[in-house]
């Protein structure tokens, strides 16, 4: 039976030891976290207000508010403006998890599919911090968009997208990414996947492209990645091209017979290397000499820590490079907005593919994104998230230095993932399976290769975008023996 806070003192669930020397906020977080994990506090149950709980426990309201904020960020609580704070709907289980990770670890509790254990921490690759989506700013921007749009704007409109957003994005890409951006050559998509599909279809129909190259490791194989499957479904031949410490091996690309290639030059996905200046020029020369085309996936370029962001490859060869971007990493995948900056000769063909696909993306959301960009709130959010990811990056480096000092970490120049280079034994799959038994989600480089390679060194792709900072150190400590 769920406990009714209004009729039962919180002292029965929260026991604070003021003589222990442990901060009261940490004690309060631990008690509430344990109560949720054990099922004493059930999903959907209303918590008292911060003022009420502070009064009953003899704490300052600020301590309670900080505690609620931490548990909200970790996913244990939910809250909406104007309504009570409630316990999140999560899988219930014992307070102590396998592998020796204590409940006071402060970890984000991720739920895996039915039949598997609940994860204390999941180092999933490619996800931003979903709890940090700027809900207030987005809600404000949507309201502003509803006020600003005219009745004519509510029709089907230009399939290329809102003229307002294309103008704003072109200015943003020129300013932030050093792109040769013209709003007339820009098409708004529903994220990266659609943008890439539009480009590939336009290249196949208008430029006679029959083969497309992908980085290897990169998106993965047809069995593991929908992007590769989509290219094959279009009738294109898919060619893997290797990546080394300088990025895509352009010599191998030239020998592949492909006339189009998909690259992630600013922060290779998933190895994290940056395409060298020499390779950038070689890739642009390859496209010009062989009537080839480069599709640049600019997926997490906003998040660079040690130096200024690397400008886009598109700026070197705007007549040969399609720049494909998305708001999925900067905001959240649920926003479903992306863009294609196409070469002048193929922009109309991409726009025609967009029109046949869905007539155009949601205009109101496009105007909302433009409003975020012009108001400065988008930049403010990115600055905040750079600090968040930088702190998690430091925590990951420190945790490996403390618990697995012999395991190198690379690929940390940008984004929110790193690559851990494991010893030869026991191998990727064994480490991943053993870690999951301890409640820690790990992901291997093998997932991103075009085909199984028994000679490839074992590596882990450690995503920390959606893993709370406080979860990182205890999670690495719990699997330290596996990593070593």
Protein architecture, described:
The chain is 38% helix and 12% strand. By secondary structure, the protein is an alpha/beta fold. The strands form 4 sheets. It has an 8-stranded mixed beta sheet, sandwiched between helices. Strands 12-13-15 form a 3-stranded antiparallel beta sheet, covered by helices on one side. Helix 9 links the parallel strand 8 (260-263) and strand 9 (293-297). The longest helix has 27 residues, at 377-403. The two termini are 45 Å apart. The model is unreliable at 1-9 and 91-116 (pLDDT under 50).
Strand content: 5-15%
- Measured distance between first and last alpha carbons: 45 Å
- The main sheet orders its strands as 4-11-10-9-8-5-6-7
Look at the structure and give the mean pLDDT.
87
Order of helices and strands: HHHEEEHHEHEHEEHEHEEEHHHEEHEEHH
Strand and helix map with partners:
Blueprint lengths: L23 H15 L11 H8 L3 H14 L2 E2 L7 E2 L33 E2 L12 H14 L14 H15 L8 E4 L2 H15 L4 E6 L9 H8 L3 E8 L2 E2 L1 H5 L5 E4 L13 H13 L3 E5 L23 E6 L11 E4 L5 H12 L4 H13 L1 H27 L5 E2 L6 E5 L6 H10 L2 E2 L17 E5 L5 H10 L1 H4 L1
Helix pairs in contact: 1-3, 2-3, 4-11, 5-11, 6-10, 12-14
Quick summary of this structure?
By secondary structure, this protein is α/β, with parallel strands linked by helices. It has helices at 24-38, 50-57, 61-74, 135-148, 163-177, 192-206, 226-233, 250-254, 277-289, 347-358, 363-375, 377-403, 428-437, 469-478, 480-483; strands at residues 77-78, 86-87, 121-122, 186-189, 211-216, 237-244, 247-248, 260-263, 293-297, 321-326, 338-341, 409-410, 417-421, 440-441, 459-463. 38% of the residues lie in helices and 12% in strands.
């Amino acid at each position: 039976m769920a406990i009714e806070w209004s009729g039962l003192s919180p002292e029965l669930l929260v026991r604070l030891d003021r003589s222990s020397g442990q901060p009261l906020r940490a004690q309060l977080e631990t008690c509430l976290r344990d109560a949720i994990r054990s099922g004493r506090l059930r999903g959907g149950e209303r918590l008292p207000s911060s003022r009420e709980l502070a009064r009953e426990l003899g704490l300052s309201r600020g301590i309670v508010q900080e505690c609620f904020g931490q548990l909200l960020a970790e996913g244990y609580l939910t809250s909406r403006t104007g309504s009570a704070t409630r316990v999140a709907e999560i899988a219930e289980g014992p307070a102590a998890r396998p592998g020796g990770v204590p409940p006071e670890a402060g970890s984000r509790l991720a739920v895996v599919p039915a039949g598997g254990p609940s994860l204390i921490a999941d180092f999933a690759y490619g996800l931003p911090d979903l709890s940090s989506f700027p809900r207030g700013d987005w809600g404000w921007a949507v309201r502003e968009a509803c006020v600003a749009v005219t009745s004519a704007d509510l029709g089907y409109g230009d399939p290329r997208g809102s003229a307002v957003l294309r103008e704003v994005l072109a200015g943003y890409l020129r300013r932030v990414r050093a792109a040769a951006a013209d709003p007339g050559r820009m098409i708004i998509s529903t994220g990266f996947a659609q943008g890439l599909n539009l480009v590939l279809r336009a290249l196949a129909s208008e430029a006679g492209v029959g083969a497309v190259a992908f980085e290897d490791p990169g998106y993965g194989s047809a069995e593991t990645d929908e992007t590769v499957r989509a290219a094959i479904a279009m009738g294109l031949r898919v060619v893997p091209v290797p990546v080394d410490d300088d990025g895509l091996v352009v010599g191998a690309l030239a020998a592949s017979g492909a006339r189009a290639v998909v690259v992630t030059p600013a922060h290779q996905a998933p190895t994290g290397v940056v395409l060298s200046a020499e390779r950038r020029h070689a890739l642009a020369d390859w496209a010009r000499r062989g009537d080839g085309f480069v599709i640049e996936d600019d997926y997490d370029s906003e998040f660079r820590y040690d130096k200024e962001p690397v400008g886009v490859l598109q700026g070197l060869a705007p007549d040969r490079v399609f720049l494909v971007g998305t708001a999925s990493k900067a905001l959240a995948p649920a926003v479903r907005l992306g863009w294609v900056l196409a070469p002048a000769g193929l922009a109309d063909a991409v726009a025609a593919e967009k029109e046949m696909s869905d007539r155009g993306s949601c205009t109101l959301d496009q105007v909302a994104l433009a409003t975020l960009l012009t108001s400065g709130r988008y930049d403010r959010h990115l600055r905040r998230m750079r600090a968040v990811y930088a702190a998690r990056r430091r925590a990951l480096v420190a945790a490996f230095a403390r618990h697995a000092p012999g395991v190198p970490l690379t690929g940390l120049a940008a984004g929110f993932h790193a690559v851990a280079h494991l010893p030869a034994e026991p191998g990727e799959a064994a480490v991943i399976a053993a870690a999951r038994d301890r409640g820690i989600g790990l992901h291997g480089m093998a997932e991103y290769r075009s085909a199984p390679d028994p000679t490839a060194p074992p590596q882990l792709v450690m995503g920390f975008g959606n893993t709370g900072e406080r979860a990182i150190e205890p999670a690495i400590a719990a699997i330290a023996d596996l990593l070593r």
